[in-house]
């Protein structure tokens, strides 16, 4: 595990508004560590440290959480809650994981070659943004790429077209359409129907 995946945390001993405000004013983010079959632990982590870690390793990164007593455990991000006013992180949930046990996660589809689609005055109509997968925590990628450069009007992209390494298993049926190539007029009609709803 790389050194800069470490996130240090402290315990929240008293769950009160006053204590929460005190931690937040000191630059911390409130959070929990969840573990299967055990009670969650209320913690705080430094906001700057959390942001750096998430920016570098993404939401599917495996982090080494280090407690005030130097206890270490591996965890993945379960949820990140942000303030709707400024989009700043104000709460985070970690899920404790074992590097030898498979977990479920969503892998975002990253489409490349979209400029070639746009040059043909076509539109990539995204229907599903992420693929649910199963794999060992350290093997799950943040994104999976799919090249759309050679696709034409009417082409569909199926879940089975999105390829993962052999150690990652997709949970989406291969026949599910995740995106399609449509004309610009079709795109306008789709946006119009959505706005009417």
From TrEMBL:
<keyword id="KW-0687">Ribonucleoprotein</keyword>
<feature type="domain" description="Large ribosomal subunit protein bL25 L25">
    <location>
        <begin position="12"/>
        <end position="94"/>
    </location>
</feature>
<dbReference type="InterPro" id="IPR037121">
    <property type="entry name" value="Ribosomal_bL25_C"/>
</dbReference>
<dbReference type="GO" id="GO:0022625">
    <property type="term" value="C:cytosolic large ribosomal subunit"/>
</dbReference>
<dbReference type="Pfam" id="PF14693">
    <property type="entry name" value="Ribosomal_TL5_C"/>
</dbReference>
<keyword id="KW-0699">rRNA-binding</keyword>
<dbReference type="GO" id="GO:0008097">
    <property type="term" value="F:5S rRNA binding"/>
</dbReference>
<dbReference type="GO" id="GO:0006412">
    <property type="term" value="P:translation"/>
</dbReference>
<protein>
    <submittedName>
        <fullName>50S ribosomal protein L25</fullName>
    </submittedName>
</protein>
<dbReference type="InterPro" id="IPR011035">
    <property type="entry name" value="Ribosomal_bL25/Gln-tRNA_synth"/>
</dbReference>
<dbReference type="InterPro" id="IPR020056">
    <property type="entry name" value="Rbsml_bL25/Gln-tRNA_synth_N"/>
</dbReference>
<dbReference type="Pfam" id="PF01386">
    <property type="entry name" value="Ribosomal_L25p"/>
</dbReference>
<dbReference type="InterPro" id="IPR020057">
    <property type="entry name" value="Ribosomal_bL25_b-dom"/>
</dbReference>
<dbReference type="GO" id="GO:0003735">
    <property type="term" value="F:structural constituent of ribosome"/>
</dbReference>
<dbReference type="InterPro" id="IPR020930">
    <property type="entry name" value="Ribosomal_uL5_bac-type"/>
</dbReference>
<feature type="domain" description="Large ribosomal subunit protein bL25 beta">
    <location>
        <begin position="102"/>
        <end position="183"/>
    </location>
</feature>
<keyword id="KW-0694">RNA-binding</keyword>
<keyword id="KW-0689">Ribosomal protein</keyword>
<dbReference type="InterPro" id="IPR029751">
    <property type="entry name" value="Ribosomal_L25_dom"/>
</dbReference>
<dbReference type="InterPro" id="IPR001021">
    <property type="entry name" value="Ribosomal_bL25_long"/>
</dbReference>
């Amino acid at each position: 595990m790389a050194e800069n995946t470490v996130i240090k945390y402290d315990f929240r001993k008293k769950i009160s508004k006053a204590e929460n405000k005190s931690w937040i004013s000191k630059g911390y983010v409130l959070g929990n560590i969840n573990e299967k079959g055990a009670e969650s632990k209320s913690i705080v982590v430094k906001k700057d440290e959390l942001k750096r870690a998430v920016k570098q390793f993404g939401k599917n990164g495996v982090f080494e959480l280090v407690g005030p007593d130097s206890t270490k455990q591996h965890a993945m991000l379960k949820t990140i809650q942000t303030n709707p006013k400024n989009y700043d992180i104000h709460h985070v949930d970690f899920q404790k994981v074992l590097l030898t046990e498979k977990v479920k996660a969503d892998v975002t589809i990253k489409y490349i070659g979209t400029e070639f689609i746009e040059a043909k005055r076509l539109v990539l109509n995204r229907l599903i943004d992420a693929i649910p997968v199963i794999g060992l925590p350290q093997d799950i990628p943040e994104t999976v790429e799919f090249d759309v450069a050679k696709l034409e009007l009417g082409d569909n992209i199926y879940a089975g077209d999105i390829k993962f390494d052999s150690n990652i298993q997709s949970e989406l049926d291969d026949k599910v359409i995740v995106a399609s190539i449509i004309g610009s007029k079709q795109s306008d009609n789709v946006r119009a129907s959505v706005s009417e709803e």
